[in-house]
Design goal:
five-stranded mixed sheet, alpha+beta
Length: 284
């Protein structure tokens, strides 16, 4: 299934994509794509529905029908740094011996086509396309062999980053990662059965039509099950938590000289089977 949240900002409803790429309204079945409604039992219930019996929503998604972030009420937005060896190299950092964990604040989350705002004082706003894992079943100290039983689905994340806030001055990476609008999420929450081999998905990003990132999840240093198990050692994972798994090379920081967003650009990014995002960059 491809699950979505549609409608005006703050008034999104749950839906799913039918075979014609149109949205069907799920609000009579579940109140939202959040909490216990992301559980495996809930996913099984949704999968058994007669899609064509659900109300058809007016409009074409991502054209004249706005999509919100594909998960609501996110408790934790966990990110993994330097999880592609070639991205670590372009950042001038060694490949880590274990996953690097940092956070994006949940207030950064926006829809896949909402504007991204360059924050006040920023001179080094950057882009990062990433594979997102959405937790459906909570747990702690999860065994790697059991990790996929805890996954509701996958989605596209743009881990927008302000490099000066992130790595210059004092403080942690989080300061440059969680600015408002720095977490476009979606368009779809795609269930694992529809994704198939999540270890070999093409992943890319373009700025104004020029491709800067062009990689594959096959080159991730730490794979999805390991990341779930590792994170669950240090915190309980709960339904609706997101783990963003790192970015391939081609970020603005990695060029000589670096290339940063100034406002007015269009970011377009996607992952095989998970859909495409497109954001306009504006100055806050």
């Amino acid at each position: 299934m491809k699950l979505v949240r549609f409608g005006p900002l703050g008034k999104e409803k749950p839906g799913l994509l039918d075979d014609n790429g149109r949205v069907r309204d799920l609000s009579s079945v579940i109140p939202d794509l959040s909490d216990e409604h992301l559980s495996l039992a809930s996913m099984k219930k949704l999968n058994a529905l007669d899609i064509n019996s659900l109300p058809l929503v007016d409009g074409v998604p991502q054209e004249d029908l706005r999509l919100g972030a594909c998960v609501a009420n996110v408790g934790k937005f966990i990110c993994i740094g330097l999880n592609y060896a070639d991205h670590a190299a372009e950042s001038g950092m060694p490949v880590p011996a274990e996953p690097v964990i940092f956070n994006k604040w949940t207030s950064a989350i926006v829809g896949p086509n909402d504007d991204v705002k360059i924050p006040k004082g920023s001179e080094k706003t950057d882009w990062e396309v990433e594979l997102g894992i959405v937790i459906g079943e909570g747990g702690s100290d999860i065994a790697e062999a059991d990790a996929m039983k805890h996954v509701a689905g996958f989605c596209v994340i743009n881990d927008v980053s302000e490099r000066a806030f992130q790595i210059e001055g004092t403080g942690t990476w989080d300061k440059g990662k969680g600015c408002d609008t720095f977490g476009p999420t979606g368009p779809w929450l795609v269930t694992p059965d529809e994704v198939g081999d999540f270890n070999d998905l093409g992943i890319w990003l373009e700025i104004d039509g020029k491709r800067y990132q062009n990689g594959s999840t096959s080159t991730m240093v730490f794979k999805v099950p390991h990341l779930i198990a590792y994170c669950s050692r240090y915190m309980s994972l709960q339904p609706g938590d997101i783990i963003s798994t790192g970015t391939p090379p081609g970020v603005g920081l990695g060029f000589n000289p670096p290339i940063y967003l100034k406002g007015g650009e269009e970011m377009k990014l996607g992952i095989d089977k998970l859909g495409v995002q497109c954001q306009r960059v504006v100055k806050a």
